[in-house]
Amino acid sequence: MDDDAVSLNNCKILIVDDKAENLELLTDFLEPEGYEVAFATSGKEAINIATIFLPHLILLDVMMPGIDGFETCRRLKSLGKVKEIPVIFVTGKSELSDIVEAFSVGAVDYVTKPIRQEELLARVTTHLQLQALINLRDELISTLRDKTLELEKLSKLKEQQLETSQHFSHIGELVGELTHELGTPLSVVKTAISHLNEKQQELALQVQKQSLAKQELNAFIDNTAQSCEIVLSSMDNVMHLIDSFKHIVVGEFSGTVSECNLHDYLHNIQYVLTPKLKRTPHTVSINCPQTLHLISDTGALSQVIINLINNALIHAFEDNAAGTIDIHVEHQDGNIALYIKDNGKGIECERTSKVFDKYYTTRVGTGGSGLGLYIVKKLVETRLKGNIALSSQPGEGTVFSIVIPQALEN
Fold first, then answer.
1. pLDDT tens, position by position, 158-184
2. 380 φ, ψ to 5°?
3. Which residue among 99, 193, 294, 334 has its CA within the 20 to 30 Å range from the CA of 4?
4. C-alpha dist (Å) from residue 314 to 125, 148, 285, 319, 349
5. What is the DSSP letter of 328?
């Protein structure tokens, strides 16, 4: 056999003909080429053998006892196991109407008798190769589909990991800021208590020597009062910072719906960000009704507000410019509207439609992930059940408008 486009080794062929001499002739042509041959002498027998033998190709006569070749082919094409097997009619009928009917019932080719060996083998080889290529194509498509699904799963996992990394990076920054900020008041407390301890030891020694003067006792009392005032003030600052941090960060991890006073909650966010803001020339102001209550995923809300403030600190202002970030809150018919506005350099019109796109960043190569505002939009829409919009003009600053339900169901 000549070299094939694909391997045809061990291909199986079913010959269907009621004439023994035709079966013998076709077998003599095919077996030397390495094909495995099976026989049937009627249409019904052909159908039964085909479903068991599962040939790669069927050579089918038209004129046979019982059901003819056309009906046999029609029935084969209705059976799931064998309907894709190519059928070549090998027959003495050469009328155009017969050829048309053969193709109409599902045949792939039509060979007329007397049979010419070279022609038959060429057609058999062609259709076996074609069917093998079709099968290979289907296998490749199936493999490609499986690989595509696998890549989609890996891509989604990577996105989830990136989003989680972004979240933990944000939490890690807050923890770092908190640790740094607690250092100062705790150092003051330690200094005040150490000073007070030294004075107490001096006082105890004077009492032991019975040399304590009234003036020195009064000085110790005054010194103690001042030290206590410093300690209490510093500890109030520490407790305020820890309490604000607890409300914000614990809420971010819980993912539950809870009620809060929105005015106090926003000021807690501002207080948690105070250490970071101290290192910038920028300020954050909050305008929110003092009695406005919100029932929502407050952890998601804090992520949104902190991300938008951080986004403004990074992108909104020219170097060394002192900017302002204003948070304005309104109650609107069962909804809460929050406006986060900066007076920075603004955003060009062609970029405003892209800022919420995943991986879009203007800081390529400088650490920007392009996920910050994408995560913000996702949090607003999925966890807060609201919507977010952006308006900006170059030189006039940027406003993020968020509208969320005042009360979410648990």
1. 776 666 666 666 666 667 666 766 777
2. -60, -45
3. 99
4. 69, 37, 17, 10, 19
5. E
DSSP 325: E
Please tell me the pTM assigned to this model. 0.52
In the CATH hierarchy, which top-level class contains the domain 12-115?
A: alpha beta
CB of 379 closer than 8 Å to CB of 300: yes
Residues of the chain with CATH 3.40.50.2300: 12-115
| CATH code of domain 276-409 | 3.30.565.10
**Token code pair at residue 378:** 């996702």
Q: Would you call 408 helix, strand, or coil by DSSP? A: coil
The model's pLDDT over 238-259, given as tens digits with 9 standing for 90+, comes to 777 777 666 666 655 666 788 8
pLDDT at 278: 85
Q: Are strands 283-287 and 324-332 parallel, antiparallel or unpaired?
A: parallel
| Tokens linked to 211 | 């040399």
Query: Could you give the CA distance from residue 336 to residue 323 in angstroms, rounded to a whole number?
Result: 26
Start-end of CATH 3.30.565.10 domains in the chain: 276-409
pLDDT digits (tens, 9 = 90+) for 89-100: 999 998 999 999
Query: DSSP assignment of 366-394, as one string?
Result: TT--S-HHHHHHHIIIIIS--EEEEEE-T
